[in-house]
Amino acid sequence: MSSRTDSSIASASFYTIGLPLTARLTTADPKDSRSLKDRAAAEHKLEKEEDEAAKHKPRPTEIAESHGNKPSKGAIMDENIQLEEEAELRKKGKI
Predict the structure, then answer these.
(1) What are phi and psi of 59, to 5 degrees?
(2) How confident is the model at residue 91 (pLDDT cuts 50, 70, 90)?
(3) Where would a tag sit more exposed on the chain, N or C end, judged by fewer CB atoms within 10 A?
(4) Tell me, what DSSP letter sits at residue 28?
(5) How large is the C-alpha radius of gyration of the chain?
(6) CA 75/CA 86 separation, integer angstroms
């Protein structure tokens, strides 16, 4: 290596190393014309919708009861486990 300190060489190598990374970040999907801000907003909206869907998930026995049927043993056990876990999370203060 030479002891030559040329700022143009140093800056050129820095930018050539950074360009491929930058290109990958800005063009993740060439068919997607949305800006980064729009992509982030869409992803946030999707996460919010998934959280809301999880909140409105019916109890395991609710579907059978709504159709006038007796819930299966597995559905009853699932509901009991779910209720126990929710009670434990409330006790810990996570809900």
Answers:
(1) -65, 155
(2) very high
(3) N
(4) S
(5) 27
(6) 16
Strand, helix or coil at 93? coil
pLDDT confidence of 34, banded at 50, 70, 90?
Answer: confident
Q: What is the dihedral of CA 60, 64, 70, 73, to 10 degrees?
A: -30
**Contact in structure between 82 and 88 (CB atoms under 8 Å):** no
**In angstroms, what CA-CA distances link 95 with 11, 53, 84, 87, 90?**
52, 17, 13, 9, 5
The structural domains of the chain, with segments of one domain joined by +, span 1-54, 58-95
Residue type, 87: A
Global confidence as pTM: 0.44
> What CA–CA distance (Å, rounded) separates 27 from 65?
50
